[in-house]
């Protein structure tokens, strides 16, 4: 399958879902620093996939995919502290961790194919 738009990339689609879930769950969180950081990290995943794709060279795309993968790690790390601080219920934590891990694996697979 030839990908013509970044919106067709499954990792981008799932990153968008993760971002929406995190934004929704953090909507009423008063810890502005935590909230802003986890929201920015989640959006960074999808934005770096999009920006790298639009650069139209495999070398640049791969570099941006690595940044997106790093942002996945940042989100996962913040989810752990969010759970410990009781900002994120256990069921949401599990869902978000699984999704972030899946996105990271998708990005890794994409890097290998490029």
Concise synopsis of the structure shown:
Helices cover 80% and strands 0% of the residues. The longest helix has 27 residues.
- Tertiary shape: elongated
Which CATH architecture? Up-down Bundle
Number of DSSP helical runs:
4
Instruction: Assess the beta-strand content as a share of residues.
Output: under 5%
User: Mean pLDDT, nearest integer?
Assistant: 97
Q: Label the structural class.
A: mainly alpha
Count of spatially separate domains: 1
What is the makeup of the main sheet?
none
Distance between the termini: 13 Å
Low-confidence stretches: none
What gyration radius follows from the Cα positions, in whole Å? Answer: 14 Å
Structure description:
Helices cover 80% and strands 0% of the residues. It is an all-alpha fold and 114 residues long. It has one domain (7-25, 38-113): Up-down Bundle (de novo design (two linked rop proteins)). Helix 2 packs antiparallel against helix 3 (58-84) and helix 3 (58-84) packs antiparallel against helix 4. The two termini are 13 Å apart.
